[in-house]
């Protein structure tokens, strides 16, 4: 019995050592951050000059914006984010930046605003339930609701022996896979 316990302990010690080795390896090999959106750095948008740069300048320096404001095409929004992968969890936002450029009607840059992760406003899901009228059906209504509405031959048409239309002409035309209803009756 003592020999069995000693072997059992060595087995568990090996499993624990292997597990710790694997877990320590996970931390040593961390995946690179995942960039998302328009990867714009400070040195990029510092090239834009207020009251002088135009929309064409912004396009050539920064590229196309991620979005435009809903009611104003002269407000351009560049969104960039870097996420870090965390083992056994959702990715964590490491760096977040939103660059908002406001142009006048002539296309000249009038305002530039840079928002970071600390400027974000957390939004929580609403806890209530939206009522949907007309969906309270009893089991009996659900079972008997379709009685008389189901006809397996209604959607098959003349292809499988139904009468009329189909691929070839009028009723009883003799064309199609099911011969348009001709010759499909049992003796």
UniProtKB/TrEMBL annotation:
Pfam families: BamE. Gene3D superfamilies: 3.30.1450.10. The keyword Signal applies. Residues 1-28 form the signal peptide. Keywords: Cell outer membrane, Membrane, Signal. InterPro entries: BamE, BamE-like, BamE_dom. Residues 168-187 are annotated as: Disordered. Residues 37-111 form the Outer membrane protein assembly factor BamE domain. PANTHER family: OUTER MEMBRANE PROTEIN ASSEMBLY FACTOR BAME (PTHR37482). This is Outer membrane protein assembly factor BamE. It comes from Bombella pluederhausensis. The gene is bamE.
């Amino acid at each position: 019995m003592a020999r069995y316990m000693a072997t059992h302990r060595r087995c568990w010690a090996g499993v624990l050592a292997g597990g710790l080795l694997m877990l320590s390896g996970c931390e040593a090999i961390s995946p690179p951050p995942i960039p998302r959106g328009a990867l714009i750095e400070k040195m990029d948008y510092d090239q834009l000059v207020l009251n002088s740069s135009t929309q064409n300048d912004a396009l050539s320096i920064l590229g196309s914006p991620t979005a435009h404001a809903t009611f104003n095409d002269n407000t351009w929004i560049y969104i960039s984010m870097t996420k870090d992968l965390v083992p056994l969890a959702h990715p964590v936002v490491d760096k977040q930046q939103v660059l908002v450029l406001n142009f006048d009607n002539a296309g000249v840059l009038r305002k530039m605003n840079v928002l970071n992760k600390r400027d974000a406003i957390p939004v929580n899901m609403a806890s209530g339930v939206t009522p949907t009228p007309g969906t309270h059906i009893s089991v009996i209504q659900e079972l008997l609701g379709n009685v008389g509405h189901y006809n397996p031959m209604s959607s098959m048409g003349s292809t499988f022996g139904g009468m009329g239309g189909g691929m070839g002409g009028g009723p009883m035309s003799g064309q199609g896979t099911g011969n348009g209803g001709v010759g499909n009756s049992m003796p």
